[in-house]
Design a protein that fits this description.
single chain, alpha/beta
Length: 244
Amino acid sequence: MQNNPSSPPRRRLVRGLLRKGIAAIFAVLTDFQVVGRENLPASGPLLMVANHFNFLDPLAVIHITPYPIEFIGGRQAPNAPVMLSWVRNLWGIFPVSRGGSSRDALLRAQRVLQANGVLAIFPEGGSWATVLRPPRPGAALLAARSGAPILPIGLDGLVDVFPCLRRGRRARVLVNIGKPFGPFQLDVRDRTNRAAIDEFGHEIMRRIAELIPPDKRGHYAADPAIRAAAQGSEVWQYDNAPEF
């Protein structure tokens, strides 16, 4: 991965050690399979997007990528074990106050892409459901502001890791890497483009949906029965309880 010399990778030693630990965890606890490694670009800028069903999802994205990678994510992880907080802190995510102001985190993330870096974001904004939901606007905004190509990733099986562990077996985890698409460019200062940005957010989710099993595609499933069953999962938990 090539990097802009004005924006060197952060925390290289700590992140290298974390990568080794993450690799060991997945080797012991899972049957971890990756499809589509040939779709990983040689260099940035690159905006990586994936479904978010489980607190292990960021670790899986780290595990499959050869790049120095930055994350933008929630300031808190209410659906994750407390011990995961130290991993997030050591890696150094760009924290978003979900339901509150996220301007600083978005600006930092945008600078990563402008410096030919690699940024990962989970467009759904949280892991409270196990079916695909409509996106929050952050991923589409970053794509529009940066003009970076987008790499969709489908994650499956991570929700089964600890249930399988309790039954004494390894979970099958499948990571499906799609083909990059974009770039997507709009003048985000033009308020009339908001509908276009929203539609691009849906296009991001449709690309992710193609990479996960049909029964988990939720709001983006071809089957109307699956879409109907997903109703209610789109309710964003932080509208009435923002993080500060």
